[in-house]
DNA sequence: AGGGTGACGATCA
DNA sequence: ATGATCGCCACCC
């Protein structure tokens, strides 16, 4: 957490930086394009943290959450949420092939960040 | 320290 | 295509 006014704030720990970087990647996905939990984790420099990407998305507000999908363009939400996600995506022009998003046409390619420990 | 959780992902039956 | 398994990661008791 950053403090205002230039006072010595508590140094952000590894997880906070991780969370911020992941959130930034999600926010950078343009309208009409999508990505996956795994790809976002890798792009942020945390390969393997796909589950955490979902956790971050879940607890953040004002994020384009509908643009984040499971591997292969699969909607991982359940019930009403899943329906809403599909509607929101179709509303911004994202096409589906059966149950999944046509990744070939809509997957957003990030410029990878360097790997980190 | 130990065990359980989830909007994951790859693999296999 | 579908469900079970297992490995992963940070969190939360």
Summary of the model, kept short:
This protein is 42% helix and 7% strand. It has 5 helices and 4 strands, in the order αβααβαββα.
Describe this structure in words.
Helix 1 crosses helix 2 and helix 1 packs across helix 3. The chain starts with 13 loop residues before the first helix and ends in an 11-residue tail after the last helix. Strand 3 and strand 4 form a beta hairpin. It is 42% helix and 7% strand. The longest helix is centred in the N-terminal third of the chain and has 14 residues, at 14-27. The protein contains 5 helices and 4 strands. The model has no long low-confidence stretch (mean pLDDT 90). It has a two-stranded parallel ribbon. It has a two-stranded antiparallel sheet with strand order 3-4. It has 117 residues and is mainly alpha-helical. It binds a DNA duplex (13 and 13 nucleotides) through helix 1, helix 2, helix 3, strand 2 and helix 4.
